[in-house]
Amino acid sequence: MKALIRNTGETVTETDGIDGIEWTTGAPLTNPSWAGGAYALCEDCPVGDPEPQDFDISEVQVPDASAPADEEVPTILRRIATFNQEKYTARKQQEAQE
Length: 98
Prior knowledge:
This protein has 98 residues and is α+β, with helices and mostly antiparallel strands. It has one domain. The chain is built from one helix and seven strands. The protein has one helix spanning 85-97; strands at residues 3-5, 12-13, 21-22, 27-28, 40-42, 55-63, 75-83. The strands form two sheets. It has a five-stranded mixed beta sheet. A hairpin with a 4-residue loop joins β3 (21-22) and β4 (27-28). The protein starts with a strand and ends with a helix. The mean pLDDT is 84.
């Protein structure tokens, strides 16, 4: 399942049924609570209760698909999240101890 990560308590997954997220790019198209701000898309999140600290985040430059085809295509910065099972397990163990 895909996940969109921003801040603690603001991680959403495809199965949450949030309207306005383009799951191909992770762009928050119409959801006002997700407009703006730094967010990252995880293509493969194996858990249903992820938090930002469970991911490794990287930044990549990708072509801007919204640019007109007859112009030089600019790039945009995209944040990519990769689920880290060790971080997730450590967080769950910490929560169990509290």
